[in-house]
Design goal:
The structure is a homodimer of 113-residue chains. By secondary structure, chain A is mainly alpha-helical. Chain A has a single domain (5-106), classed as Winged helix-like DNA-binding domain superfamily/Winged helix DNA-binding domain (Arc Repressor Mutant, subunit A, Orthogonal Bundle). The first copy, chain A, has helices at 5-8, 12-20, 27-37, 46-58, 82-106; strands spanning 25-26, 62-66, 76-80. The first copy, chain A, binds a DNA duplex (30 and 30 nucleotides) through residues 5-6, 8-10, 12, 26-29, 44-48, 50-52, 55, 71-76.
Chain lengths: 113, 113
DNA sequence: CGATATACCTCACCTGTCAAGGTATCTCAG
DNA sequence: CTGAGATACCTTGACAGGTGAGGTATATCG
């Protein structure tokens, strides 16, 4: 179950950006939302999540700030930037493209089986 | 142009196995055929191709033999094995699964844009 | 007080891709 | 004959992203 790590590679950043498009969020919440959207069939590993945040922030695609909750564990919120939106659009385009290319290469002989 | 290497990661083996399903073949030919099927928009890098062959052979998914052409450069032919066929089917299933999961995570708000 | 959930983080390791380099043979133009 | 180009194979080292394992801190509930 779950996706082979080699298959998700390169889509992690896109997943995160997709979520930030709908509003600022923080790590734990993004992952929870991914779990829910996929019916518990997939989740990002924490290490993957946080290294992705570092990467995206370094590239200027997201920016972060500490939330000021009165109680509970502190949360670091992330916002998608304008370049981030552009990068997201480009990555979705690339993803659609890759899907089509790969499918054309492995073209299954029949629809069912 | 071309697919980001992080996006194809994990599909290379599947691509190669897909080609071997149609009959024995050798490296150069497989790559040529991939180039053609994708209208010159994609090709595996040689280093990637040959490391994939090593990997697949080690896993018992393919086996190889030297062709005996009277003239020209020698070719190493590859055959897909029974376990290889099973692995191919499993990997296609996994790929379809991953596509659906990823799409559900990045779910675009509208069909066009 | 201990367990559980929330919430963050880092390090070392593994694996697959790829640029760069190499070898050898054949064909064809000049 | 010589050199270029295509065919055909291979290896090495660097690089990048995912991940297991470990760590910190707070709040809640029994």
């Amino acid at each position: 179950m779950s996706i082979a790590s080699d298959l998700i590679r390169g889509t992690t950043d896109m997943m995160i950006l997709a979520h930030l498009l709908e509003g600022d969020s923080y790590g734990y919440d993004i992952n929870k939302s991914i779990r829910m959207r996929t019916g518990d069939r997939f989740e990002l590993k924490e290490a993957t999540l946080y290294t992705a945040f570092r990467r995206l922030e370094q590239q200027g695609y997201i920016s972060s700030y500490w939330g000021d909750e009165g109680s509970g564990a502190r949360r670091r919120y992330y916002t998608i930037t304008a370049p981030g939106r552009k990068a997201y659009i480009a990555s979705v385009r690339e993803w659609e493209n890759a899907k089509a290319l790969i499918d054309s290469i492995i073209q299954p002989k029949s629809k069912d089986e």
